[in-house]
Design a protein that fits this description.
Mean pLDDT: 82
Number of strands: 0
Strand content: under 5%
Length: about 170
C-alpha cells in the first residue's frame, strides 16, 4: 500500500473526477427536466435541489472511497467542479434547449388532453345535474303526498294519539 501517491496516480484520479463531475452535470439536467415537467413552484425546486445535493454528496463519498481509498483530496473536489462546469457550459446549453422543447411539447399535450377531459366532465355534470334536479322535485312531491296520505287515515298511531288527547281534554 502506497502512503504517498505519485503524480501519475493523482493525475489519473483527477481525470476520473473530471468525468465524474461531468456525470453529475448530466444528473443535474435530469433533475432540472423533472422539476420543469412536474412543477415550477419554488418549494418543489428547493426540494429537488436539496435532493440533488444530498445525492451528489453521497455519490462523491462513494467515488472517493473507490478511487482514492477514502482519502479526501482537494483536487478531487476541484476536478468534480471543473467537470460539472465543463458539462454545464458545453453540452448543458444544448440540453437546456432540448429540455425546454421537450417540456413545452409535453405541456401542450397535457393542456390539450386536460381541456378535452374538462369538456367531457362538464357535459356529464350538466346531464347529471339536470337528472338530480328532476329527482329532487320528484322526491319533494312524493314526500308531500306521503304526509298527506298519512294524515288522511284516522287509524294511524300519531293521529289516534292526538284524538285521544282531544277526548281527554273534553272529559
Amino acid at each position: 500500500m502506497d502512503y504517498i501517491q505519485g503524480l501519475a496516480g493523482q493525475t489519473e484520479i483527477f481525470l476520473y473526477s473530471l468525468g465524474f463531475g461531468f456525470l453529475l452535470g448530466i444528473l443535474y439536467d435530469v433533475f432540472r427536466t423533472l422539476r420543469l415537467i412536474i412543477s415550477r413552484s419554488k418549494g418543489f425546486a428547493f426540494f429537488c435541489d436539496l435532493l440533488y445535493f444530498v445525492i451528489c454528496a453521497f455519490l462523491t463519498f462513494c467515488f472517493i472511497l473507490v478511487a482514492d481509498s477514502g482519502r479526501v483530496r482537494l483536487y478531487v473536489f476541484f476536478g468534480e467542479a471543473l467537470g460539472w462546469f465543463i458539462y454545464y457550459f458545453s453540452f448543458g446549453a444544448i440540453a437546456i434547449r432540448f429540455t425546454n422543447a421537450v417540456t413545452g411539447f409535453f405541456r401542450r399535450i397535457f393542456s390539450a388532453v386536460s381541456k378535452r377531459i374538462k369538456r367531457i366532465l362538464g357535459r356529464f355534470c350538466r346531464i347529471f345535474g339536470k337528472m338530480a334536479l328532476f329527482g329532487k322535485k320528484i322526491i319533494r312531491k312524493t314526500d308531500k303526498k306521503a304526509k298527506f296520505n298519512l294524515q288522511k287515515h284516522k287509524g294511524m298511531v300519531y293521529n289516534l294519539y292526538s284524538c285521544i288527547i282531544k277526548k281527554k281534554g273534553n272529559d
